[in-house]
Amino acid sequence: MLRVLSTHLFLNQRLHPGLLELASRAGAQAVEIFAARQHFDYTSREHVNELAEWFGENSLEPFSMHAPLFPDREMGRAGAPAVNVLHPEKSRRIDAMDEIKRALETAEHIHFKNLVVHLGEKTDTWSPRALEYAETALEHLGAFARPLGVRILVENLLNEPTTPEHLMLILEMGHLHQAGLCLDLGHAHMTEGVTHALSTMGSRVASVHVHDNHGLKDEHLWPGEGTIDWAATMSGLKALKNPPALVLELDSKFGEPHHGLDERIRQAFDKLA
Questions:
Q1: Which of 85, 138, 144, 157 is most buried, by CB atoms within 10 Å?
Q2: What's the rounded Cα separation, in Å, for the pair 111 and 66?
Q3: CA triple 72-255-157, angle to 5 deg
Q4: Contact of 194 with 233, CB cutoff 8 Å
Q5: pLDDT at residue 11, as a whole number
Q6: Confidence label for 203 from pLDDT (cuts 50, 70 and 90)
Q7: What angle is formed at CA 221 by the lines to CA 70 and CA 207, rounded to 5 degrees?
Q8: Confidence of residue 169 (pLDDT cuts 50, 70, 90)
Q9: CA quadruple 204, 175, 63, 3: dihedral, nearest 10
Q10: Which domains does the chain have, with CATH numbers?
């Protein structure tokens, strides 16, 4: 399975070639770029070109991008609304789609192959309208992403619309055959359990967000520091017909200081082997 490091680890820092080089030294074969403007400013031609040039000269792959969760540089702390394609207000859904497409457009220069998207916020509930909005958003994003060579991957969250069963229903009812799923192990552990999520989503899982917690809070800990059964989890992942990418998605507080960080990342990947 492909070893991928999410740049979520460096979320509070500007993403620069030095951080990508650290990922490469740590044994990552690819990265998932987290599209948060204070970290990766997808609206800045200079920033996009800087990273595109680096990827063009190095072997580390840009496997995926995580779609933006907020449109500002402060992750909503100053009051900016979340990027929510399921919001009841049409104007908010349109704004959310526009923000995601701004990030998607960078695939013209940074040739990532997958875009991980969220459906809704934590308090969103399941309803026929949520199903309709989800299908519409994913169909529209898929049509926009396809010419760029990008596949849409939908992540299981902690809300009702993104339970494993509902995600599979959204893809089936919307005839979204080209879309896939991103299985977030930490979110699954806090809800229905990793084994259940894997058995339900397995055939569509293309990427796995790897992090640990104690079942109560989304802590984004190193594998083994929480209560996920890693032996059973890895056995289940290895049994899939098409092995998914393993994306190590750790809390940004672990990204500082950098001394010894590359070795710790390498050990985490080795633990998953």
A1: 85
A2: 14
A3: 55
A4: yes
A5: 95
A6: confident
A7: 65
A8: very high
A9: 0
A10: 3-271 (3.20.20.150)
Q: Which residue has the tokens 């940074």?
A: 110
- Over 80: is that where the pLDDT of 127 sits? yes
- Average pLDDT for 246-252: 96
What does the alpha-carbon distance between residue 263 and residue 206 come to, in Å, rounded to a whole number? 26
Tokens 């009702």 map to which residue?
Answer: 160
CB of 189 closer than 8 Å to CB of 164 = no
Average predicted confidence (pLDDT) for the chain? 96
Residue 96 pLDDT level (bands cut at 50, 70, 90): very high
Peptide bond into 257 cis (omega under 30): yes
Residue 144's contacts (CB-CB under 8 Å, 6 or more residues apart) are 101, 104
Per-residue pLDDT at 273: 86
DSSP per-residue letters across 193-242: -HHHHHHHHGGGEEEEEE-B--SSS---BPTTSSS--HHHHHHHHHTSSS
Which residues have a Cβ under 8 Å from the Cβ of 98 and sit 6 or more positions away?
none
Cα–Cα distance measured from residue 145 to residue 5, given in angstroms and rounded to the nearest whole number? 22
Residue with tokens 């979340």: 82
Q: How many whole angstroms separate alpha carbon 162 and alpha carbon 138?
A: 13
